[in-house]
Target: Zinc-finger domain-containing protein
Amino acid sequence: MSDDLYDRYLAAGRRVTDHQQNCPVCRAEQRCEAGDRLWKLFSRLQDAYLKDRKR
Ligand SMILES: [Zn+2]
Model:
């Protein structure tokens, strides 16, 4: 398992949370463009991290 990947996964998760707390659009459970980008990055890293863990 790569610690670097895990760190990036956690950091991306924090950025999503931070954004959601500061963005009225995302707080209303819709996703703005910036929030969508952060979310996609986060889910990519999450997929990679979970795949990495299974090995
Ligand atoms: Zn947003």
Observations:
- Helices lie at 3-22, 24-27, 33-54.
